[in-house]
Amino acid sequence: MKISFSEQDEQFRQQVADWMAANLCGEFETLRFRGGPGDEHMYPHERKAWERKLAEGGWTCVGWAPEHGGKGLSINQQVIFHEEYARAGGPGRMGHIGEGLAGPTIAAFGSTEQQRRFLPGIVNGTDFWCQGYSEPGAGSDLANVKTRASLNEQGDNWLINGQKVWTSLAHESDWCFVIARTEPGSVGHRGLSFLLVPMAQPGISVRPIEQLTGTSEFNEVFFDDARTDASNIIGQPGDGWKIAMALLGFERGVSTLGQQMQFHNELNEIIAVAKANGAARDPVLRQRLAEAWCGLRVMRYNSLRMLSGAQDGSLRKEATIYKLFWSSWHAALGKLAMDVLGPEAELLEAAPYQLTRLQSLYLFSRADTLYGGSNEIQRNIIAERALGMPREPRLRP
Predict the structure, then answer these.
(1) Cα–chain center distance at 365
(2) Active-site residue, 251 included
(3) Domain segments of the chain: what residues?
(4) Which of 40, 51, 251, 318 is catalytic?
(5) pLDDT by residue (tens digit) across 300-353?
(6) pTM across the whole model
């Protein structure tokens, strides 16, 4: 693990900062610090245009291998890019699911033909992806997936039936990678497949789920004989669980450093409010602010440690604690923001009563300990996979 950067790396940092300063302006000025968690509904079309701007500058898929259209940056330089992007107020990435999850998975497990077909659209910022994992009865327990897929009589299309839920930005996506059960009668991890499914078709309907914040970045997605070409399966039928787990490893990748810089921006805003309204003089709140800063540093050092390993989707033991740590920390930060605001936390200035950024942070962070794997499931993963403790008893069907 390295916690410092070379002179060459710092020169690269300046290059990124200069590009962001020169381009995140004009028509894109309104996007600064927008589109993050709890704010993903804002400016989707403008943020898609920003993705194309990033692509023009060569700043999409910076960690991908050059043969797949990426920059092939070192881990150090990827960390620097994501940190400087967030520091400059770069908007939430509309291409995150494609760049961080779908693309690396296709690169690792897809055929050459699939790589040639799907990766360029992600690199160019023209194709956008969503994730078809969670279902009403299969959230953190992904092995309980009920969505089914079977080949039609001609054998040239998969027919998909079922429901996915909590699908971020499904209404803005061109493609969805779907975990479906392709072996009749299979249960648990077996009989699952990883399918790439076009969203613009009659067999798919997307329904928004309204949040506490009044926004609807999450959706339900219904598949009613939805189709995808028989060739749009990654790996072989039955490989879905293995590929799904590798994808979750990519999710714990280098972009987590950018997420932490967004957290840093939020903490700075809370500190600024505390100084302005006098809350910083309260010794208890001052201690909590200090603890939040320390927690963020611990998060950074653990991320650098887990990124020191292989970048093939496999998870080191250090990576198993990341989701539990950041989600609990972020939920506590949302509560701290409300306590620093005091009575203003419960007030909206005037119609149309738009939430402030810190109010949205608080409400949205309530979900952090659920999506992406609930804290209870994360503790099981740490106990069983990282510490080698006895597995929790399972009830047989």
Answers:
(1) 14
(2) yes
(3) 7-94, 129-238, 252-386
(4) 251
(5) 888 888 777 665 555 677 778 888 999 999 999 999 999 999 999 999 888 778
(6) 0.86
